[in-house]
Amino acid sequence: MNEPSRWLTPAEQNAWRSFIRAQERLGGRVSRHLQSDSHLSVADYAVLVHLADAPGGRMRSADLAASVGWEKSRMSHQVSRMVKRRLVVREWCPEDGRGAFGVITPEGRAMIEAAAPSHVETVRRLFIDSLTPEELEVLTRVANRVLEHLEQRPMQGGSSGSSSPRPPR
Amino acid sequence: MNEPSRWLTPAEQNAWRSFIRAQERLGGRVSRHLQSDSHLSVADYAVLVHLADAPGGRMRSADLAASVGWEKSRMSHQVSRMVKRRLVVREWCPEDGRGAFGVITPEGRAMIEAAAPSHVETVRRLFIDSLTPEELEVLTRVANRVLEHLEQRPMQGGSSGSSSPRPPR
């Protein structure tokens, strides 16, 4: 990691900034709509959707974290907050020692069923409708490529950058 | 807005989930590297880069917000926090009445110059290197399309979704 920094070309920089900015603005808008329409965060919604779709409305915490795409500790904090709001309960399965289940409550199910139509409409109006089916397909492929690439490079401490200070672009 | 909800197709849903998840995971990783290597948030970095690149290291707050792609109020809070850390100062220009300038300090410039090489290396390693130049180009185009689409649809209150409750997907 001690080779000189490879600065980004203008095209690379545009790709990075556009990608981050599009997701940030889109995520912000979708999140504000969801909160004002349904009093749910995007994180609440993701958890409720996955549980509502699971057999019996229940999933092992580790499986739920993997499905939503979060680290286990983040999911644990999120589920704790949702337990306080009675959207989810935790159930322990002492005999197998493989951790708790999250189970959607009737209140949780009512929330997600009420929230889904307008959330889907928001996602369609702000995101899906802006792109052709071909563009959606390319975007899915590219996003999945990024995800696979990240999985092959687990985080190990900080990155040790090179030391040549140059004006950043 | 009272037509029945148009539920997402599996392809549309994959595009949405992959896009959100890729940005979320990538953003999280890049942010942790930047924090641990350079003690800067992604927001700090964005502000410092834009100011460092501007003539005299100064930009009007509204122009800085537009360049970074944030709302003015968010930029104002961010700049206030950075003023406390002496990375930026505010300068008022009383005669023109068009608001304050943000100006990068020597400390801010030293921070960004020290942070840039390893941040660029992280972005390249985790993002740019996962994609071909053609894919980067498509991604830029698609992300810009999403941004234009959002700008044409300013937020007005909540979205009024339809009311047919169906199991969410």
Automatic annotation (TrEMBL), chains A, B:
Q: Which residues form the signal peptide?
A: none
> What sequence ranges are listed for the domain HTH marR-type?
12-148
**GO molecular function terms attached to this record:** DNA-binding transcription factor activity
List every stretch annotated Disordered: 150-169
GO BP annotations listed: response to stress
Q: Which Pfam families match?
A: MarR_2 (PF12802)
Q: Which residues cross the membrane?
A: none
Concerning PANTHER family, the annotation shows: MARR FAMILY REGULATORY PROTEIN, TRANSCRIPTIONAL REGULATOR, MARR FAMILY
Can you say what this protein is called?
MarR family transcriptional regulator
What organism does this protein naturally occur in? Streptomyces hawaiiensis
